[in-house]
Description:
Helices cover 55% and strands 0% of the residues. By secondary structure, it is mostly helical. The model has no long low-confidence stretch (mean pLDDT 75).
Amino acid sequence: MRGDETDEPDHRTLLHSLARRALAVRTFVRPSDAPAPLGEDAQLLEMDLHRAGRQELGVSDEAAPEHRAALRRVLRCWCAARPHIGYVQGINCIAAALLVMCRQLLKALAEALQALGCAAHSN
């Protein structure tokens, strides 16, 4: 190993590798392409939208409809991408937490870009 090399992976290369792998196995489903789940999956998904712990995650009453709509899209994509598994109770809580975390990360990124003078990229 040369002195200027480190043991840490090149994050850009790692992200590209993960993206190529994910695309190769076709795990991505666009929300517009995701068919609505059928039967029991559809009933459970709709019931669980209201039981995803949004208040515990800090989602306000005003933001609840938008949060539920986003959660519905994520869960429908899950069902479309994994039809052999379908909807599983409890995944709503995991997806809800990930949605909140992603929104917080995007907000922090936008604030950091704005602080760095990259306001055009903070949308």
